[in-house]
Amino acid sequence: MPKIREPRYHKVAQEIAQDIVDNHFLVGQKLHARSTLAATYGVSAETARKAVSVLADLAIVKPVHGSGVEVLSRGKAQDFLSQASASNNIQATNREIKEILKRQKEDLTSLNQLLGLLADQTQQVRQQSPMAPHEFIPDDDSQKLHQSIGTLNIWQNTGATVVAILHQDELVLSPGPYAVIEPGDTVYFVGPDKSVLAMQQFFAN
Fold it and tell me: Quick one: 97 and 63 in the same domain?
């Protein structure tokens, strides 16, 4: 059964944002070096780096070369946390998916219906039109593998929005731009009908 999880760096980004909202970190304050942040939140330096990148993309913090990370906005930190809270209904759907997989391994009809619901909820959070998800498995020899969604610019190149990645036995939902597509992964995406062919052509060598 796939294990549904949220990327660890995204959770750490929320923890840092919460500390900003709670005034543990003040606007204009310089946070510790990423290695110290990693120790503070009990994660690797790479996870801390990705978490800071998420907050920097949202203009909540700003990395300052040679002097740590500067807090820019408490309001945007609150907006980020509110957006995360709005995704709770997606997590409820995840739990229901796990129950269906437990009861009915052979019948994927209900699962597909819930994946469609999940895509609708995800698209609403992103303020886009809901569409049923498509499923795609890139060829193992595709030159686009081992790269992140953001690096590949999948939406810009195909019109498809990736809503989930099934990696081995783990289903990563709303993976974000830093998620890497590996050989054997199943990519779930939403988009217009032409995006199906566009995805196939994009990952073809």
Answer: no
Same domain, 190 and 104: yes
CATH number, domain with residue 14: 1.10.10.10
d(CA 142, CA 67): 40
What single letter denotes the amino acid at residue 94? N
Per-residue pLDDT, 110: 67
Q: Which residue range(s) make up the domain with 48? A: 3-85
Find, among 58, 64, 73, 69, the residue nearest to 21 by Cα: 73
Residues 47 and 77 in one domain: yes
CA distance linking residue 29 with residue 154, whole number of Å: 36
The secondary structure of 31-95 as a DSSP string is EPPHHHHHHHHT--HHHHHHHHHHHHHTTSEEE-TTS-EEE--HHHHHHHHHHHHTTHHHHHHHH
pTM of the model: 0.45
Q: How confident is the model at residue 104 (pLDDT cuts 50, 70, 90)?
A: confident
How far is residue 104's CA from residue 96's CA, in Å, rounded to a whole number? 12
Give the span between the Cα atoms of 149 and 2, in whole angstroms. Answer: 21
